[in-house]
Specification:
Rossmann fold, alpha/beta, about 260 residues, plasmid, SDR_fam, 2,5-dichloro-2,5-cyclohexadiene-1,4-diol dehydrogenase, single chain, NAD(P)-bd_dom_sf
Length: about 260
């Protein structure tokens, strides 16, 4: 597969979770990649497995650290990038809004929204200069549906849609495409933690929460990380050259979030 042959890609949170799956598939598709991740062990593991790739430790929500991380990744890619996948995100608290602290609220928005701005800002001059580029912003099914007990997460993910659509209009004249990916419930450790937190909060059995999770999806199953990667590669490739300003769901048609 060479859909991304000779393309250069930056993936945030690219050494663990969904990001690592996306990164692995982008490499297989021919891309040269650079990743950052807050998990130092994951970064070291990724670097050992992918010695030709650049991997740095970075808290994407720290505006004092992001510029240096971007500089290192751009240098590793030869001075520029064709693709930015703003993948980093956190679940945030599962609680009634009055029980969410300002620190929890702020951290959830910082990682899920402000970090995307920081990375876009850091690569934009280069993309404009080369008059091309693809930006993928990770949103969620919670970016189009209400989600009780997860208000900071839903607020951030709705905001990502506004960021994406506005930026697509702003930079289209430079040949830069901007889209959002809206996953549903993706199989993996983070989703397991979210369901466990909901079970604890409501006092219901975990098995009941898990069954409820897929019952609200028309396809009736969890999303696999590889499906996110497949969409990211398609949209980033020349096959997706006319796709911009879109909110692209990979959620099995999630009908409601509870």
């Amino acid at each position: 597969m060479t859909a991304l042959k000779d393309k250069r890609a930056i993936i945030t949170a690219g050494a663990s979770g969904i990001g690592r799956v996306v990164t692995k598939k982008m490499i297989a598709a021919g891309a040269k990649v650079a990743v950052c991740d807050v998990d130092e062990d994951a970064v070291n593991s990724f670097a050992a497995e992918n010695p030709d790739s650049t991997a740095v430790v970075c808290d994407v929500a720290d505006p004092t650290k992001v510029p240096e991380a971007i500089e290192t990744m751009l240098k590793g890619l030869g001075g520029g990038t064709d693709i930015l996948f703003n993948n980093a995100g956190i679940a945030g608290p599962t609680a009634a809004i009055e029980d969410i602290s300002p620190e929890e609220w702020g951290r959830t928005l910082d990682v899920n929204l402000t970090a995307q701005y920081l990375f876009i800002r850091g690569v934009m001059a280069g993309m404009k200069a080369q008059r091309s580029g693809v930006i993928l912003n990770m949103s969620s099914a919670a970016g189009r549906l209400g989600m009780p007990m997860r208000t900071p997460y839903a607020a951030a993910k709705w905001a990502v849609i506004g960021l994406t659509q506005s930026l697509a209009m702003e930079v289209g004249k430079f040949g830069i495409r901007v889209n959002a990916i809206l996953p549903g419930s993706v199989r993996g450790p983070r989703m397991e933690r979210v369901m466990a937190a909901r079970a604890k909060l409501t006092g219901r059995p975990l098995a009941e929460i898990e069954a409820e999770e897929v019952a609200t999806m028309s396809l009736g199953r969890m999303i696999e990380p590889e499906e996110i990667a497949d969409l990211a590669i398609f949209v980033s490739s020349d096959a997706g050259r006319s796709i911009s300003g879109q909110s692209l769901g990979v959620c099995g048609n999630t009908e409601i979030l509870r």
